[in-house]
Fold:
Amino acid sequence: MPDRTLEALGLATVPLLQPLTYPGPPGPGPALLAGDRLLPLRPEPGGVGRWRVAEGHTGTGLDEALAALGQAPAAARVPVLALGSNAAPGQVRHKLTRLGLPAVVPFSPAAAGGLGVGVSGHISGPGYVAAAPYADGGAGSRLWVTWLDEAQLRAVDGTEMPHYGRALLPAVEFPVRLPTGERLPGAYVYYNARGVLAGADGRPLPHTRDQPALLARLLAASARLRDLLGPAPRDWVARAGADAAAREAGTRIFREEGWLLPERAFAAYDAGAGG
Structure:
């Protein structure tokens, strides 16, 4: 049997601990994170709980596999869109296990309509600048869906709020399709409460998986950021990750440089911490 551990698969990266690696590598396709292992999932008609956990030439239904692990079935979980590091199994494992929760989470790629992926309007605790969604009726994005149980959802809320809100997006405006073609009736997404950063054209700055390149771009565009966090991306994450005041000052510079596009779409769907 192949070694399905995150370490063997090259998916153990934790951006919370290594901020320049943000967002971290996602899995190669639909999969079940089961502690230290990532097991391939084979999509099947009839709902996510019927997808097959493929091991060798046999497969177990996802709900059966979850039950064998003592975990909630798919119907007791909620779909949460992942745009950045929440699509990285190593990051998700770290977030959950450090809180004493089981790192058992189904993942799947998905096609999301009405959403673009931009750059968050704040500097995160580890020092990186994360991804954040913005509403765009003409946009389509390749994202990930994670299915979280109630305790896992509360735990992820704790890692995102108050800088992010959690919105329940209606399928009519934000259709999310799984590899089977099934459309979810709705999905949660974490959105930046401040908004996203704009490029020189005034449009949302596209998210990049290359965090050093993003930070270098921001540093090149602002002498104030260079003075505060520069001159290089490694200096940025070292200073921002160690000093909350520096993070707050850098976030304030985003706004004062005129880069911030305020959030105006997702708050109407905000589910709150109790949603």
The chain has a mean pLDDT of 94.
